[in-house]
Amino acid sequence: MKKIAVEEHISIQDYIDYLYTRKTPPRIEVLDDPRMGKITRDWLTPEYYMDMPLVTGGDNRGDISGIHLRLEDMDKAGINMQVLSMRNPGIEEFEIDEGITWARRINNELARIVDTYPDRFAAFAMIPWQDADAAVKELERAVKELGLKGVKTQSHIKGEHLDKKKYWPIFQKAAELDVPVFIHPREPCAEMLKPYLAYPGLAGAGWGYQAEVGLHAMLLIYSGLFDAFPKLKIILGHMGEGLPFWLFRMDGKGGTPGIKKKPSEYVKDNFFVATSGMFSQAALMCSYLALGADNILFAVDYPPESNIEAAEFIDHAPICPADREKICHLNAERLLKLRSP
To answer: Does residue 341 belong to any structural domain of this protein?
Structure first.
């Protein structure tokens, strides 16, 4: 069955080199952890992220320069297309001029790869969220001129979540362009990070990533964002960062003042969840029963996760063929307006 994977990471060596050599990182040190070094208000140190390998098996398949190896991996697993996005750390932490410059460079490079392999790749744009006006302009350029299919953010922006009204023009533009916003995990912001540091790995995929993005999604719901822009679509990876499990509980018994619907209704109406890095049939069944097949997207979380494992997972899921086809490719084609070769 045709498969389109929607959370697939890539990098550009020039960007990684820039992170290493940048002389004035925008950081304010707030914590000092013996495992990760200085923890900062704006982001974890670039050195921490550089310890997270771009490559698998000692090669460069995580970088644009290794695109041929990426295609080989896709072919072995029967994955027809990847929707590419830049890996952490994002450009959102830079000063405005830097963010604008790197957004354009990254989006141009992503568009070049898509143009070279139009049947194998699509891509999500990077935008300078730290300046809403510049972000709106770059999002419009990326979608209308470059043909990118949405926008990705690495969750909070220098410790701020996107429920703040200054970010809403970006969501408004995404809704107008009819493209989704992908909220990708990162460690919790500095104000929330300290309890996680007692145990290695807790701030990452062990718990912190999903706790951060799950909270972020709920902040967007409670803020009234989806009442203002009811057609806006958000993608969450890793089977929804826990939200499908909590639909009953999040509605409570006393209502939610200030918004028009129950929180669970916004999850069902405005969110898509991807299977990336969550190859658990129990988790899939939870999302499947809670949201329905129309709201689930196939994804791998490549290169850290295995294309083959992801493909075998969805191929053996206890769901009907029609719903498997929705999850594997039809939903992505509909949401991202992908042409079917």
So the answer is: no
Residue 148 belongs to a domain:
yes
Q: What pLDDT is stored for residue 136 in this prediction?
A: 98
Confidence of residue 232 (pLDDT cuts 50, 70, 90): very high
Crossing angle of helices 132-144 and 168-177, rounded to 10°: 20
| Parallel, antiparallel or unpaired: strands 29-33 and 37-40 | antiparallel
Residues with a known catalytic role: 301
Position 143 in a domain: yes
Adjacent-strand bridge partners of 11: 63
CATH code, domain carrying 84: 3.20.20.140
Q: How far apart are CA 247 and CA 262, in angstroms?
A: 10
- Asked if residue 201 has pLDDT above 80, the reply is no
Q: What is the pTM of this model?
A: 0.91
Cα–Cα distance between 108 and 86 in angstroms, integer? 12
pLDDT tens digits along 258-282 = 899 999 999 999 999 999 999 999 9
> Which residues, listed in sequence order, are joined to residue 282 by a DSSP beta bridge?
none
CB 135 within 8 A of CB 157: no
pLDDT tens by residue, 39-74: 443 444 444 444 444 434 456 778 888 899 999 999
**Regarding beta strands 29-33 and 4-10, do their DSSP bridges make them parallel or antiparallel, or are they unpaired?**
unpaired
Of 92 and 334, the one with more pLDDT: 334
DSSP β-ladder status, 37-40 and 271-274: unpaired
Task: Give the helix ranges, DSSP H, for the chain.
Answer: 13-21, 46-50, 67-77, 96-116, 132-144, 168-177, 190-193, 208-222, 225-228, 247-251, 263-270, 281-291, 307-315, 321-325, 331-336
Number of domains composing the chain = 1
Q: Do residues 32 and 22 touch, judged by C-beta distance below 8 A?
A: no
- pLDDT at position 189 is 80
CA distance 96 to 92: 9
Cα-Cα-Cα-Cα torsion 58, 62, 66, 69, nearest 10 degrees, comes to 80
Residue 78, domain extent = 4-336
